[in-house]
Protein 1
Amino acid sequence: MQEGDAIESLERLGLTSYEAKVFIALQKLGSGTAREVSRVADVPRSQVYSVTEGLEDRGLVEVQQSSPMQYRPVRIEEARKTLRERFETESDRAFGYVESVRNERGGEREEQEAIWTLSGRGHVAERAAELVRNAEESVVFAARTPDLVTDDIAAALREAATGGVTVRVVSVNPDVRELFESDASIATMDTAEPAVDDERTGRAVLADGNVVLMSVLGDCGDIPELNTETAFWTARTNFATVLHELAMNSISPREIA
Amino acid sequence: MQEGDAIESLERLGLTSYEAKVFIALQKLGSGTAREVSRVADVPRSQVYSVTEGLEDRGLVEVQQSSPMQYRPVRIEEARKTLRERFETESDRAFGYVESVRNERGGEREEQEAIWTLSGRGHVAERAAELVRNAEESVVFAARTPDLVTDDIAAALREAATGGVTVRVVSVNPDVRELFESDASIATMDTAEPAVDDERTGRAVLADGNVVLMSVLGDCGDIPELNTETAFWTARTNFATVLHELAMNSISPREIA
DNA sequence: GTTGTGTTGTTACTCGCCTACTAACAGACA
DNA sequence: TGTCTGTTAGTAGGCGAGTAACAACACAAC
């Protein structure tokens, strides 16, 4: 972890660059005067006074009105808690309002022939799980690697299976199939000849003959946590019906005992 | 709750003004084209395209690449979760680094004759509880109203009392004294003639003859949740010894059965 | 089939505000 | 006398807000 990264993270948490640098400098110093802080933080001394006042207002710093003035940070746990509480307060305010106005214009309508794109592993997983939960007759789920099978997806598959939906899990990867081998109500299958033998394919959901989600994994950048999975999904459209059929045809139904 | 407030809150959560407006507009519409979003959000149509792309990158919006393009928000719970996870990720990064560099310059040193100021009810409560926990011989705690006696402070007082520290709770307010009347190890007292009969006094901690914290309550502004309590505290200083003695003298030790 | 109108998606531009950063000054102190 | 402190003022740059323009497309009217 580099200091520059920490500064950027504190900026994303709402601090200015100077505030972040001063906060970190005070953690290093324990306590200090404006001059000491300025040197460690590489912030102009004349700016330290107003910057630390801002941090004090935010409850992140304590000030001793002596001569020279002394500054010290609050405890790290206290600082995190302060920032988290501010975050939760703003979330409550924002989403409280959003809850109150949602769909005030006429309800959520799903366009005919609509194909939606979405990005980010978490969101793809969330949407996949939701499509599984909404299935009424059958679900085929495919994933290239076990880490693409989130707990939420696994739970949704099991819940659908115990609820009477025909559930099949398909993968070239035996580790993925193994996840469900103990589930009597879930069939696991190999795909002898994958339609696309591309290591960038991610996961797929095929449900009820007219619901389809497919994802691809993008090139991993320098930042491992950067979500690079992109998916499209479509439901109750002609696209969905056609894609569903194409995908099902490409799956060789060689069942594994 | 006004829309302006919600927009400001979303801005504090890291969105730009346009992003916040578009996000809220999509919640109202359920889904919509750039033109529809522009009208509802009062954002120039030409800006909606890049703004929604930014929201999609953040996992807050789904896009249908049709003609015209259609946009829809992810579920509210999903959006909150996304923002919270981003917040926690940045917190982990920032504070992970801060943990690693804390006091690298020579440990936390408490200046001789230091008097520290701090603001915000939460921080004052936190510091007060900490001073109580650190007491070894005696503690006197005073508060004007019961809401100034947080659970943390109450727990700290009880813990100190059962640990052998002489604990006394002093208040002109019978509701405050009542909080501890069932605690055999905590003495509660009235102050027959308060030293300062000012409704802006907040709370006080007097410990071990040389630890003092005193707070005042500021004028409450239009925003009730704005923390307006300011405190100073000092420990093991001559100030502390003198202030401790002065404060103790002003407390009439008329014990209540 | 042509024309006029409205819409779409994209690009470029200006302005204002906020932050980063520098400079200067009066007073205190060794 | 030099250094430090706390305060104030100023400039520059970057980013977001907001406007303008354009090519291409869709659609209705004739």
Note: Chain B has nine helices and ten strands.
Protein 2
Amino acid sequence: MGRSPCCEKGHRNKGAWTKDEDEKLISYIQAHGEGCWRSLPKAAGLLRCGKSCRLRWINYLRPDIKRGNFTEEEDELIIKLHSLLGNKWSLIASKLAGRTDNEIKNYWNTHIKRKLLNRGIDPQNHRPLNLNCVRDYTNTSASSMTLVSSNKQNIEESDENSSTGRIDLDDRERTMRCPDLNLDLSIGLPSSSLPIQEVSGSSLCLCCNLEVGSSSGDKCCNVCGQVKSCTIKLRS
DNA sequence: AAAATATTCAACCGCCGGTCC
DNA sequence: TGGACCGGCGGTTGAATATTT
């Protein structure tokens, strides 16, 4: 009947970590490595739950974390990856060395969303906010597109209504927007509907392009090998 | 200078999938 | 086979800080 809590009952510290707690966690992991998060707090002398320790380490204390502002290149990469993957922050983070999923998620919500809105692009589905803009959009680079006042209602509505992070263009609209771009990004379907991207004149599947691998370990695009059923392991 | 408002981001929460027994 | 456990994920919260009035 129900699951047990993630850590034993009793007094637990919550909220911001103190310097002393940080030092305890760092020194323990340096000595013993990342291991069983559940038993780590007790072993390290911390009054925290294992999950909290894991989060603190992964998002803040890990030595390979990159500090500082995101670069323009990182911005654009995040936007591209989000357009392909949706809110799969951990998958996106795995493509940006030194960045954590939490950091990217926060950065998306505070900076990139606004940036895309200013470009007249819905940050959830990467569609133009106003279909009246479609013609202009196809003739203009996205980065140079500015938000017109009539879009304001669309911004608010799309922000509220589109919470899935999925790409849900219908074919007709997609063709109108991007006539030369194949955005068939279905994931986990048989080879007939594999996610294929055109890269430098040759096709490269999404899995291979992102180096996330296929379920079978086989290559699955016509750049890297035979065509086989290819699934990216993503939560639905 | 103070109060109100907006923004940022570390941390928490609850759920899910994989593994073990 | 099913339940318990655990790690990991994405969404959300709220305290701290910055900006505006």
Note: The domain at 72-177 of chain A is CATH 1.10.10.60 (Arc Repressor Mutant, subunit A).
